[in-house]
Specification:
The complex is a heterodimer of chains A (294) and B (321). Chain A has 294 residues and is mainly alpha-helical. Chain A has 11 helices and 2 strands, in the order ααααββααααααα. Chain A has one domain: ABC transporter involved in vitamin B12 uptake, BtuC (Orthogonal Bundle), CATH 1.10.3470. In chain A, 73% of the residues lie in helices and 2% in strands. A two-stranded antiparallel ribbon of chain A has the order 1-2. Chain B has 14 helices and 4 strands. Classes of the chains: A mainly alpha (294), B mainly alpha (321).
Chain lengths: 294, 321
């Protein structure tokens, strides 16, 4: 009984981490599908979300919700600036060069954050108290519910956006074939900018909802970004549902591994899972294999 | 001049420049920085063989460097193995490990390959940190003996400079030869199109694994040398950030160019030293420079310098040897 309760506990905390990984992975996939770039600065938007909210909360004495909204807006502005000044001028650069630029941007953003806010670790207050709820013997914090709810709403909203709105369809058209999209009158550059906007907003939101549970500091973006990237790879970049399942799978397995094997190897477990999955299914779990053309 | 002769002349000039440099820098701390430039040049060349020639990315090369350093460190401090023998063992075992994991890893392509090598790097980094009994954990491992040849102990910056650069020049020469050989051409054909290379009779799968293994072996040698010259290793030197820095060195220097790897390594190693005057701002300036260099010199430094060299070459050739 004790054992099964522990298992449920691990699974629950795994699910909430997994939801965050899925959200971050979404950010990766949106930019990748629009531009073919793996944006290594994605994790920094997650960090910016948490740190900016804290900044507006404590230094400006704002209530939580306006602070969070302002933080998302500010992080998104950083994302837009990045696209406008470093990605757009380099339309013809090789993908590798663009990846190096995103790495440079991530170092730059992290460095500025360290200069402004220092190296301390901070806690963000929970959205609605810390009284635990009990579910099948396992404890659940209200913040976990917030994470599940916000992730669910975001994913449904983005599914509606990409499947039914004209702009969302245009973005998907760009990811299938950029030239064909521009031939039918889609402004590809605008779509790329939009992809950076959406993904930095999504990333910063993920950073805000996880910060009350895991604390935040100037360097949390690296690991969270990489785990989100993991989720995107496991689920496959092109599949929305795959991404969610990939993130949740990663979160649960990681949390079970950390609980049952060793907590100090928690991060290693996530990457071992990734390697095993890549070795067994080199194209991701939910993608069908493609044939390379010469 | 034939291409081979031209390569040799360039290499001789480079060697002379490398050997002359310490004469002007005796007792200067810059000599110590140049030792690191040598080690990083080896690592950048190793990665360039994989990334620039064969077109296969690795975001976990710091792990091979770290493995080389730790195997040397553990063997010499705990089991009193001779340092040279320890270096040999670590090179062979890391090369062997890379050969084994190379088969499943190099089946992957593009960002899947990037992610797998990155994952391997992070797993090794956590392993260095957590196996405290073996590696000393986050606080590191000290007391690693210096290398010695007879009565000559490599324990000063000056001696280490010649030791490290001896190895670096040797590896540069090998890589230059490799790039103009049959294997070099086969590797570049993989870079351009794997399917076409296979159709032309190149054993793509084996060749990729072999070059991955050689690249890891060179990185392990660099790691051993690092351990024996520093006499101290800690996990912080072998993390994800350093893997990324190595990729940056290769790309900023110029993909597929051996001298480019040297330039990339030299700049990224010395830059933080010069930026130290900016104190806390150094990391910000570093990030900014990375972005600007990639934006304005997309072909790498070597293409910029080649342009300069062709303008000056007639003048240079008239100078006496």
């Amino acid at each position: 009984m004790e054992y099964s309760r522990q298992l449920i506990q691990y699974a629950l905390s795994g699910l909430s981490n997994g939801a965050i990984y899925a959200l971050i992975g979404f950010g990766f996939a949106i930019i990748y599908n629009a531009t073919g770039i793996i944006n290594f600065a994605q994790g920094e938007f997650v960090m910016l979300g948490g740190m900016l909210t804290l900044f507006f909360l404590t230094f400006m004495n704002m209530p939580l919700i306006p602070a969070a909204i302002l933080a998302i807006a500010a992080a998104t502005a950083v994302g837009i600036t990045f696209e406008r000044f470093a990605i757009r001028p380099l339309r013809k650069a090789t993908p590798l060069n663009l990846v190096i630029i995103t790495i440079g941007a991530s170092i730059l953003i992290r460095g500025v954050a360290m200069l402004i806010w220092g190296k301390d670790t901070h806690a963000l207050p929970s959205f609605s108290g810390n009284d635990p709820l009990y579910l099948a013997g396992a404890t659940l914090l209200p913040q976990h519910l917030w994470i599940f709810a916000i992730t669910l709403v975001t994913i449904i909203a983005s599914r509606l956006f990409f499947n039914y709105s004209i702009v969302g369809k245009a973005m998907r058209a760009c990811s299938y074939n950029r030239r064909a999209a521009s031939l039918v009158g889609i402004d590809v550059r605008k779509m790329v900018l939009l992809s950076f906007t959406i993904s930095s907003a999504m990333g910063s939101m993920a950073g805000i909802i996880i910060a009350p549970l895991t604390m935040t500091s100037y360097d949390v973006g690296i690991m969270l970004g990489l785990k989100g990237f993991c989720a995107a790879i496991i689920g496959g970049m092109s599949s929305g549902i795959g991404m969610v399942i990939g993130g949740l799978l990663l979160g649960i397995l990681e949390s079970l591994g950390a609980g049952l094997v060793s907590a100090s190897y928690k991060d290693a477990i996530a990457f071992i899972i990734l390697l095993v999955i890549l070795f067994v299914r080199p194209q991701g779990i939910f993608n069908t294999s493609e044939t390379e053309r010469v | 001049m034939t291409k081979g002769k031209k390569n040799l002349t360039t290499f001789l000039f480079f060697t002379i420049a490398v050997l002359m440099t310490p004469l002007f820098l005796a007792g200067n701390y810059l000599l110590n920085v140049l030792v690191f430039v040598g080690i990083n040049t080896m690592l950048a060349i190793a990665l360039n063989l994989l990334l620039g020639f064969a077109g296969q990315i690795s975001l976990g090369h710091a792990a091979f460097f770290g493995l080389g350093a730790y195997i040397s460190g553990i063997l010499t401090t705990r089991y009193a193995v001779d340092p040279w023998f320890a270096m040999m063992l670590s090179a062979i075992s890391v090369g062997g490990l890379a050969f084994i994991i190379g088969f499943p890893i190099l089946k992957l392509k593009g960002h899947y390959l990037a992610m797998a090598t990155l994952g391997f790097g992070i797993i090794m980094y956590i392993f260095f940190n957590e196996t405290v009994d073996l590696t000393g954990g986050p606080s590191g491992m000290s007391g690693i003996p210096n290398l010695l040849v007879g009565p000559l102990i490599f324990d000063s910056d000056m001696k280490n400079y010649f030791l490290i650069w001896g190895f670096t020049l040797f590896i540069m020469l090998l890589s230059i030869n490799l790039s103009d050989s049959r294997i070099g051409r086969a590797l570049r054909s993989i870079h351009d199109s794997e399917v076409a290379a296979r159709v032309m009779g190149v054993n793509v799968r084996l060749l990729k694994v072999q070059i991955f293994s050689i690249s890891a072996l060179i990185s392990a040698i660099a790691g051993s040398l690092y351990a024996h010259t520093m006499t101290f290793v800690s996990p912080a030197s072998f993390g994800f950030n350093f893997s990324i820095e190595l990729v940056t060195m290769v790309i900023i220097g110029g993909l597929g160019s051996i001298y480019g790897s040297f330039l990339g390594a030299a700049i990224l190693t010395m830059l933080p030293e010069f930026l130290r005057v900016f104190q806390d701002f150094d990391i910000v300036i570093y990030g900014l420079l990375l972005i600007l260099m990639t934006m304005f010199m997309p072909g790498g430094l070597v293409s910029g310098i080649r342009w300069l060299a062709s303008a000056l070459s007639s003048g240079l050739r008239k100078e006496p040897d």
